[in-house]
From TrEMBL:
Its EC number is 1.5.1.-. It is an enzyme of class 1 (oxidoreductase). The keyword Acetylation does not apply. The lineage of its organism: Bacteria, Pseudomonadati, Pseudomonadota, Alphaproteobacteria, Rhodobacterales. Residues 18-173 form the Flavin reductase like domain. Keywords: Oxidoreductase. InterPro entries: Flavin_Rdtase-like_dom, Split_barrel_FMN-bd. Pfam families: Flavin_Reduct. GO terms for molecular function: oxidoreductase activity. It comes from the Bacteria. This is Flavin reductase family protein. The keyword Transmembrane does not apply.
Amino acid sequence: MFYRPQDGHGLPHNPFNAIVTPRPIGWISSRAADGTNNLAPYSFFNAVAYVPPQVMFSSTGSKPDQDGTKDSVANIAETGVFCVNIVEYAIRDAMNMTSKSVGKDEDEFSAAGLSPVECETIPCARVLGAPASLECKLTQIVELPGKSNRLVLGEVVGIHMRDDCIRDGRFDVTTFQPLARLGYRDYSHVTEVFELARPDD
């Protein structure tokens, strides 16, 4: 099968998200200028550079109470900071709860039964007990082609790792089984890993 996206795929559901998988989930916490905390998952998320460490996520929709975007992007544009919380399998239901579209004045931490804790280097909350959290300063917001598509890039200025996730000097993902987004409403989680040595190692 071949199709041009502009012509449509003819399938019951869009296959694009199912092709580019698995995708890590960036559970983005931000804070509005009025102090309201926000927490939302984004599966268009990844790390993009080592030195300095940098991450990205993209938002592809909008809300009626924001100007052509979502709460996360609006908050980050106002404050210049955000935090990426890593999602473990055990807390998948709370993550899913924070994907619900609510008013910008509502706090998703409370709605999902999560405890916010202050970051160390930025004025923002992070998820207490997350396997890892990346405190970020905004570097740029890029408007992408298409309605309400925005790419957010940030430099990581502080890193939290849960102590029980560190084994033999490594951050061991099998200790918490990170959640990954697949296509449609499908998810997966990492339960085992293997190594491949590069040819030039």
